[in-house]
């Protein structure tokens, strides 16, 4: 059986979360402050930097939260002036984490998160239907981790990443007037590590790295649907099922983060982050089917689409003010850079240079904490000029998200 190399388009989220398809929604408190990372008040720091566990004031900390994310993408053909709009369902990223300090210098923890995933849905008959009609992803990261505190101001932490996910992708096969569905499950492994420093009681510094994860998909199913049963034998397919088998390797990109939090006064702190994403490893998308000759290469079973992603960065700035010992106000803003130019814009992973404003409130009730947050994204319109796909026009988008998080620090 031939292999299908489905690059990270199959793990695509949408523009509402981050440049490319990174879902930057792993902490409600963090989101309210522009999703900055140098916050070690509870177990939510574990996803961002495992070393931060060593500075959580509570010996045991438990957090959980979720988001509702809404987005809409509009594409207009400037020649025909025809406009097409996505009908995406509400996205619901979730996270949870627990940390425990069995010894003074040693902390252990576990983080569960959804750093990649969402659904984008275009009309079945739109002009880009051969690229995508609907793309749905569910992905989950499971991260056991450990942190060691060398002294009062420095800790090192590391995590193991086990990733699970599944993809469901619909696209048209106009050559035969049909449709193709790709459905597969995938798993992969990676790691993360970081240093967390508190050289001064007023200053926290977080330096973290999260590795690439190559997702391995096995026993995937490619299902073809055609209006006439006579087409299936021409493609080497069983007319009763219309299916072809495939395997896949799905590479996800690495991420580097530097974060700072400074307490200007006992009640007021300011945070900043710089993220660097290694998107350049996503250069093309190759589909290699076992028997179906629906490709665009000398071997008719192979379809290759250039993607030409480039490394990108995000800059974040947030703040928190304690109105009382129980009520906290938070604000933030960040700029997220798209990992590709206008000449490489693709409909299955629409990405924009985006400004985002965020805000929220936090409430502490002894050992319990409740956090709410919201964000409004302002993606910058793009002049689509993808010559490789013959895809031209203008793309616009809107997005917003809300989050609710809970924390419990019993002792």
Briefly characterize the structure.
With 411 residues, this protein is mostly beta strands.
Describe the structure in your own words.
It is a multi-pass membrane protein. Belongs to the OmpP1/FadL family. It is found in: Cell outer membrane. The structure is a single chain. This protein has helices at residues 28-32, 45-48, 231-234; strands at residues 60-76, 83-85, 94-100, 106-113, 119-121, 134-149, 154-173, 178-200, 203-210, 213-225, 243-252, 255-263, 268-277, 284-288, 302-306, 312-322, 327-336, 354-365, 368-379, 382-386, 391-408. It starts with 27 loop residues before the first helix and ends with a strand. The chain is elongated and about 70 Å long. Helices cover 3% and strands 55% of the residues. The chain is built from three helices and 21 strands. The protein has a 14-stranded antiparallel beta barrel. It has 411 residues and is mostly beta strands.
Structural class: mainly beta
Count of helix runs: 3
* Helix coverage percent: under 10%
- What multimeric state do the chains show? single chain
Q: What is the CA-based Rg, rounded?
A: 23 Å
């Amino acid at each position: 059986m031939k292999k299908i190399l489905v690059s990270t388009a199959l793990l695509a989220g949408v523009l509402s979360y981050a440049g490319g398809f990174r879902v930057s929604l792993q902490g409600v408190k963090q989101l309210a402050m522009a999703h900055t990372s140098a916050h070690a008040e509870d177990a939510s720091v574990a996803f961002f930097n495992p070393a931060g566990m060593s500075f959580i004031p509570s010996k045991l900390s438990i957090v959980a939260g979720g988001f509702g994310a809404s987005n809409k993408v509009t594409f207009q053909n400037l020649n025909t002036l025809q406009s097409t709009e996505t009908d995406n369902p509400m996205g619901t990223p979730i996270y949870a984490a627990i940390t425990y300090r069995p010894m003074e210098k040693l902390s252990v923890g576990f983080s569960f998160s959804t750093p990649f995933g969402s659904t984008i849905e275009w009309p079945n008959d739109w002009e880009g239907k051969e690229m995508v009609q609907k793309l749905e992803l569910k992905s989950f990261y499971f991260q056991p981790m450990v942190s060691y505190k060398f002294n009062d101001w420095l800790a090192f932490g590391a995590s193991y990443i086990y990733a699970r996910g599944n993809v469901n992708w619909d696209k048209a096969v106009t050559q035969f007037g049909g449709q193709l569905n790709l459905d597969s499950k995938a798993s992969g492994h990676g790691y993360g590590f970081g240093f967390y420093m508190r050289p001064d009681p007023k200053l926290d510094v977080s330096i973290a790295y999260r590795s690439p994860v190559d997702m391995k998909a096995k026993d995937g199913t490619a299902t073809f649907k055609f209006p006439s049963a006579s087409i299936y034998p021409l493609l080497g397919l069983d007319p009763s099922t219309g299916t072809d088998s495939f395997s896949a390797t799905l590479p996800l990109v690495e991420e580097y983060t530097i974060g700072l939090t400074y307490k200007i006064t006992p009640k007021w702190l300011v945070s900043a982050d710089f993220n660097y994403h290694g998107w350049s490893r996503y250069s093309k998308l190759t589909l290699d089917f076992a028997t179906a000759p629906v490709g665009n290469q000398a071997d008719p079973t192979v379809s290759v689409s250039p993607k030409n992603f480039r490394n990108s960065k995000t800059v974040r700035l947030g703040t928190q003010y304690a109105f009382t010992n129980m009520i906290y106000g938070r604000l933030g803003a960040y700029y997220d850079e798209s990992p590709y130019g206008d000449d490489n814009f693709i409909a299955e992973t629409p990405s924009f240079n985006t400004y985002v404003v965020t805000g929220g409130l936090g409430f502490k009730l002894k050992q319990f904490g409740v956090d709410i947050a919201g964000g409004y994204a302002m993606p910058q319109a793009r002049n689509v000029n993808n010559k490789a796909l013959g895809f031209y026009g203008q793309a616009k988008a809107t997005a917003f998200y809300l989050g609710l998080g809970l924390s419990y620090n019993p002792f």
